[in-house]
UniProtKB/TrEMBL annotation:
Keyword Transmembrane helix: yes
PANTHER family from the UniProt entry: ENVELOPE BIOGENESIS FACTOR ELYC (PTHR30336:SF4), INNER MEMBRANE PROTEIN, PROBABLE PERMEASE (PTHR30336)
Annotated GO CC locations: plasma membrane
Ranges for domain DUF218: 84-245
Protein name, entry field: Envelope biogenesis factor ElyC
Length: 255
């Protein structure tokens, strides 16, 4: 892989909440060891407090909901749809597992919606993308198998297994959907950034958000649901990743 792509992936991973806050706590420990007691304790306590807050449902949903609420769910109606685009997501191409078990939750939500819309619009082309990322088989390949297993004919599917990130997906797909009515399917939190990248390529597909995580129950939840939980930290991480991605886009545009 090109150095810049790997560097971006490494930097993005290190700036996510858990590694970043652990690094801050580690720096605080060094300051304590160097007898800078007040500064060291401040860093350690601040990082632990931030980690605890990001692991709670209210904070996680507060970060994620503005992203997920950007677009309403796509309504299947009588409008013409020429193309249905399913963006890539994490996969583990383990041949020992059933096909659906090789896809992550986001990937499952995306291809499920893609197949649903493909059945609702039988004249539409299904475009699936996403690279292998060292897994041997790309998410695009697994998407094709899922779609065919669920009744979509191979002739209707266009597979793009080479794009490595959303920017490359937008660049590869845009020429295929020029002057066509396309629907773009991705996780609700990711879709605002994806739509911005497709707009940069000169196309404006219709948004179809799926995989919503910032869900709020209409009933009163038990108090223990407000305790820190790894599930909520994952939501905060998802939101953090998207905000970093949007910042990266702005920095690139200002170059």
């Amino acid at each position: 892989m090109p150095f810049l792509f790997l560097a971006k992936k490494w930097l993005g991973s290190l700036l996510l909440p858990l590694p970043l806050l652990l690094l801050i706590a580690f720096l605080g420990s060094i300051l304590l060891w160097k007898r800078h007691t007040r500064s060291g304790m401040t860093l350690i306590l601040a990082s632990l407090l931030a980690l605890a807050l990001l692991s709670t449902r209210p904070v996680a949903n507060l970060l994620l909901a503005p992203l997920e609420n950007t677009y309403a769910p796509f309504e299947t109606d009588e409008q013409l749809v020429d193309d249905i685009i399913v963006l890539g997501a994490a996969q583990v191409a383990d041949p020992r597992l059933p096909l659906l078990s090789q896809l992550g939750n986001a990937a499952l939500a995306r291809i499920s919606e893609g197949v649903r819309l493909a059945h609702a619009h039988p004249q539409a082309r299904l475009i699936v993308s996403g690279y292998a990322g060292g897994e041997g088989r790309s998410s695009a390949e697994l998407y094709v198998e899922v779609a065919q297993a669920l009744g979509i004919e191979a002739a209707r599917i266009t597979m793009l297994p080479r794009p490595r990130d959303t920017a490359e997906e937008a660049a590869a797909i845009a020429p295929l959907i020029k002057h066509r009515q396309a629907v773009l399917i991705s996780s609700a939190s990711h879709l605002p950034r994806a739509m911005a990248l497709f707009a940069t390529e000169g196309v404006s597909p219709l948004p179809a958000p799926v995989d919503h995580q910032a869900k709020e129950s209409t009933s009163t939840l038990p108090l223990y649901t407000y305790l820190p939980n790894a599930r909520y930290l994952e939501r905060s991480e998802r939101a953090w990743h998207e905000y970093l991605g949007r910042l990266w886009i702005r920095l690139r545009r200002n170059e």
